[in-house]
Amino acid sequence: MFRQTLCRQARSALSRSSTPRPVLTRATPSITRVIPAVSVTRSSPSRCLHSTPRLLDRSFTNILADDTPPPVQVSSISEDGIQLEDGLQISGPTIFLEGRVFLWDVPPVGEGKDRWKGWTEEHFELFDTVVPAPEILLFGTGKRILPPPPFLRTYLNQKGVQLDIVDTRNACSTYNLLSEEGRRVAAALLPPTYQSWQKSSLPGTSTSA
């Protein structure tokens, strides 16, 4: 029932778009910089989490490892976060890119004209590592749609990436649909209730007793 509802919402959102989006054939293998792979123990049995560059002192992680992870598909969304079909529960900000799930280190969203204070292009530099770039980035801004950071649309357009701003629930439903169709789609998602990632949750880190 959840998947049927998500698909209906996604098709409705796509039909309202003024920009035609042709259905693409499945993308050819992508190319990335040679960068080391990391994983975190707090993952589902079939999937590894990866950290964005800012979480590991700006060292990139390998987003295209040799293993073949299951497709990223959202099963449900609640106040506790986003749950994937493979059972992985994501409580904080996250990015879906090239079949990988990234922990996303971003400041909390404020109110008014300063809501994006502290946000910079560096928070999206993960998209510099992938060739070809995704066709579209779905930016889920939480429970409600918010205007994006002022720099973001221009920054992504320069890379050939279309930006769609939606609430996180609709971002997930649209991502499910487009990824099933073989589109080059990425999602940057803020949880319905904001939670930052704790240092102990990050790949390659540990806490002392």
TrEMBL record:
GO CC annotations, alphabetized: mitochondrial inner membrane
Organism: Coprinopsis cinerea (strain Okayama-7 / 130 / ATCC MYA-4618 / FGSC 9003)
Entry's Gene Ontology BP terms: mitochondrial respiratory chain complex I assembly
Claim: Mitochondrion is one of the keywords in the record: yes
Protein name: NADH dehydrogenase [ubiquinone] 1 alpha subcomplex assembly factor 3
CDD domains, A to Z: Mth938_2P1-like
Subcellular localization: Mitochondrion
Major place of residence: mitochondrion
Keyword Mitochondrion: yes
Family membership: Belongs to the NDUFAF3 family.
